[in-house]
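Standup notes, structure subgroup. Blocker cleared on the flavin-adenine dinucleotide input:
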Amino acid sequence: MATDTHSIFTAKTVNDILYHLKTVSNLQVIGGATYIGDLPEKALTVRNVPELKIIDKHERYTDFGPAVTLNSIAHIGKTYVPSVLYEAICQTANHSIRNMATIGGNIMAHDPRLSLVAPLIALGTTLRFKTLKNSEIIPLSKFTSIPEDSVLTSIRVPTEDWNVAIFRRLGSSRMISDNSASFCFLAMTEKNILIDLRICFSGPFIFQSQELETKYLGTRLPLSKSTIEDFLSIAEKDFDEYVRDKENAAMLKRQFLNLVASSLHELT
Ligand SMILES: Cc1cc2nc3c(=O)[nH]c(=O)nc-3n(C[C@H](O)[C@H](O)[C@H](O)COP(=O)(O)OP(=O)(O)OC[C@H]3O[C@@H](n4cnc5c(N)ncnc54)[C@H](O)[C@@H]3O)c2cc1C
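Run returned:
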């Protein structure tokens, strides 16, 4: 369909998308267009590609097509979606925006202030990209740009059971602004021993600390007062090193440490 200044391309299959990307210059793939606001001059919508709208549930993970809308995920319910992702989706925008907004758009916007980024990273999400000949899997935590000549075909979200799973949003509710951020804390325990821990803060930047996530594995719960103090001082040191030259560093650090402290209390 062509308008005066805009062309909107549609595709029915992943191969159609690859063909358009190869033959049309400056073509931008879009989902529900709720993030971009203004349509680009040449846009290709993936919302009519059946294979990109599939939700495929397995025992240990669920594969979401990038064109799956946030409401479709919310509708399958908390039982089948990790609780932190479910909460993040329910707190995103409003019902009518969520009917158009896609999970792929939330990720491919490359905006760490968006609400699903922290939970998806903490859960260990991976992205599958396809070219005409190959496919490549990239962990979301390492994703920087779409590999050449490829299309995002699936978003794999592990669905392990976490004993403590916390999602918190900061900043204005149900919209994205300069002060938007989210936080995710996941802890797995076995016989009162901490066996896995994931922490992700995502706002103006994404912050994770490998030291924090691994140093206390094997520790018996409840955590002692001195372990919590020690944990928080490592969190402060790592965050300080990371945000040193960033704007609003002091406020972001305060927010992060408060969230970590309250999460640790849930754990004990
Ligand atoms: C009133 C309002 C409130 C909002 N509140 C929130 C909120 O609380 N939290 C939040 O996170 N977001 C919010 N948003 C932003 C937006 O709705 C979501 O981030 C949504 O998930 C974006 O998905 P989309 O499909 O609309 O993306 P689009 O706008 O279509 O695309 C976003 C970007 O991703 C790229 N892209 C999209 N799909 C693909 C694909 N399949 N392959 C490659 N690239 C792709 C596009 O090129 C573009 O760069 C809000 C928006 C509005 C209008």
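Discussed briefly. The longest helix spans residues 225-243.
Next: hand off to the docking folks.
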